[in-house]
Amino acid sequence: MNAEDLEKKRAAYLNFLKKQPKGFTYYDASTAKKPIEKVIPIAAQPSTDQTKSTQLDSLNCKYTSCQACPLGSQGRTQVVFGKGSAEATLMFVGEGPGRDEDAQGAPFVGRSGKLLTQIIEAMGLPRERVYISNVVKCRPPDNRTPLAAESSTCKDLLLLKEIDIVQPKIICTLGATATKALLGDDIKITASRGVFVEWRGLLVLPTYHPAYLLRNPTEKRTVWEDMKKIMAKLEELQ
Ligand code: SF4
Question: Which helix (H) or strand (E) holds 174?
Fold first, then answer.
């Protein structure tokens, strides 16, 4: 290449550089190392809420056809998993699905569920902000009380894992079955109702089941007093 050609090439290259955006760096693919690829920002990672939801979905997926206890083969329509916010600070735990829950595949959607929704909304919380589950996830025949072995099996397979994922600050157990499942068979709902108990690093407050309130409406006031204690404690724990 002669001097004239070299000068033309240099002028063309300078002209090319002038047209490039600020910060442009010349890169000769034949000699240079490959430039560093763009780093994906942390904001692109999934949020904690998505991670917890995904964990709950994965857990539930494993048990859609569960037959680990006799309730899996005693006429249930479907397994009724817990539902609500995976980020909930307050979790309600009841006994097990009834007819409406078994048909709709969601916990507390029958008459008891409507009353529970009213109670939650009276606390100033949309139902979607709390997490609601049951000790057993399959409807016992004729709505009988789950046997201790059934409660224990389902609690170990699902409920304890749901609690570990959601990590609520307070669990409100609804009725004797849920209270005994978490706090032990010796505990009596009449003696423990309305009193916070420390359990696995969180607080449990037992109260009456909404089905009991439908049969004994005068006890609604008692349960409301328990809910006020929960509201105050949640405020304190913020
Ligand atoms: S009640 Fe629980 S342990 Fe029993 S079959 Fe249903 S999901 Fe499985």
Answer: strand 170-174
